Amino acid sequence: MKYRLFTFMILAMTTISSLTAQELDIKKVKFYEHQLDDVMELIDVEELKSKLKEVELQFEKDPSEINKARLGIIYHETALNLGFLSKTSFKGYSKKSYDVLSEIYLDPKTTKELLPFITSYRASALSLLGGETMKLGLVGDSFKLFEESIAMYGEVSYSPEFLRGSVAENLPWFFFSKRKFAKVDMQSIIDKQNKNSDYANWKIMSFVYWAWANQRQENRYRSQVLNYLEKAIELDPNYKAGRQRAEELKDKLNK
Fold this sequence. Notes:
The chain is mostly helical and 255 residues long. 68% of the residues lie in helices and 0% in strands. Helix 11 (202-214) packs antiparallel against helix 12. The longest helix is centred in the middle third of the chain and has 19 residues, at 115-133.
């Protein structure tokens, strides 16, 4: 209950959320995206563990705004990739992530160009917290945060839609009203990428193309599915994003 009350309190606050995407410097948004890229969407477990130690040490030495954002995001990646695999050492990272990112979000001095990433990863961390604690109401609360983040920043950053779509894709069936966003958000990112090739980076697009294909395995989509799987593979020569999953799905469909 205390998490839900805390969430509603934050939703009611407008100190930072009154900003609009039009007020953001797009070049600065991209600058911060590059500053955060190495702690986002990590799929190699050993790389993640090493990066977690590195980022914690960086923040201990220099508790700057960007290092705090990196800390909150690496905690999110730890919760996502390791939190559900361990009953001990990696439990609790979803709350750590949510708390750190909430501190940044509520600080009126926070650089506004960081907010597309802060708000989206904060929402995702809350959904992970709901899953870890089995307080499913928090998942609903997280989608309210996602909706706000997308409305504010979806035109200038892939992050809000990508994270909402990723969360939606992995929800159990009874969240059917939210699972629809898995398709909606990935299609939206592809549409925006087609209009602006700088909208999302290669790593994100590799994941997005695989996710789009994975969600549409019916025969009527076969041609487009195979096309997007090839794109996912080509964008990821070193298996840092969606390539392995894309290759596995391609093999499955070709059998």
